[in-house]
Specification:
This protein has 237 residues and is α+β, with helices and mostly antiparallel strands. The protein folds into 2 domains: 143 residues, Outer membrane lipoprotein wza domain like (Outer membrane lipoprotein wza fold like); 66 residues, 2-Layer Sandwich (wza like fold), CATH 3.30.1950. 28% of the residues lie in helices and 22% in strands. It is elongated. The protein starts with a helix and ends in a 12-residue tail after the last helix.
């Protein structure tokens, strides 16, 4: 066998091996890992619940000397008022905090009326990574959807698999553990099905993986083309 014939057989064998491996990869990805769960339903949007890092104003209608501005909700979830001391704020709405302040103030003031106003919110963030133009954090706002979040980081790359987007959600508030699920944003982008878009929660993580073709191209470049001494080309033998 001459050199050209040997090269032809080598190239044909390499391409058959690649095809077999890529078929196996596609089959495994179609099944998907059994550890992925259904996305947790979004919380109902009600009155804002204070959290650590927020700042509030406390106004006494009839006793303005006790007013306090720009009170920071501390890491322990409490605020401090000189008249009554510490008051729990995190996990409560502004009216609920006002009610607690009224009860505690009643021991020192006659018929206190109190209003609590949220001055600034803790900039809770969502992370968007993977095959997007500018991976990074997005400031969370109630009602933020997955598509809105990815658009804020420049959108997705052509190599992104919109049908297999990974969503990581905290198991519960204060937990460092996340539950993984998959969402199909291809329905939103390609079919206009806005119901397939997911409302995110604070601290959620979105990861856009590579498409099978993108993975195949990367694998071919890294582990085949760059490894063999003979380059596959369109040049006749």
């Amino acid at each position: 066998m001459n050199i050209r014939g040997h090269r032809a057989l080598l190239a044909l064998g390499s391409m058959m091996t690649i095809a077999t491996l890529l078929t196996g990869c596609a089959s495994n990805e179609a099944k998907g890992p059994a550890t992925f769960l259904m996305p947790a339903p979004p919380q109902e949007q009600g009155e804002y619940v204070l959290q650590v890092g927020d700042s509030i104003d406390v106004t006494y209608y009839y006793h303005p000397d006790n007013n306090q501005a720009n009170l920071l909700v501390r890491p322990d979830g409490k605020i401090y008022l000189p008249l009554i001391g510490e008051v729990q704020a995190a996990g409560l709405t502004a009216p609920q905090v006002a009610e607690a302040i009224v009860k505690l103030s009643s021991a020192s003031l006659r018929d206190p009326k109190v209003a609590v106003n949220v001055r600034t919110l803790n900039p809770t963030r969502v992370y968007v990574g993977g095959e997007v133009l500018k991976p990074g954090f997005v400031v969370y706002t109630p009602g933020l959807t997955a598509v809105q979040a990815v658009m804020q980081v420049g959108g997705w790359k052509d190599t992104a698999d919109l049908q297999e987007v990974v969503l990581l959600q905290k198991i519960n508030e204060g937990s460092s553990e996340y539950r993984p699920s998959k969402i199909n944003l291809g329905k939103v982008v390609e079919l206009g099905d806005t119901k397939a878009d997911i409302i995110l929660g604070p601290s959620d993580v979105l990861v856009f993986p590579k498409t099978t073709i993108a993975k195949a191209n990367l694998w071919m470049q890294q582990y085949v083309i760059n490894m063999i001494p003979i380059r596959i080309s369109a040049t006749p033998f």
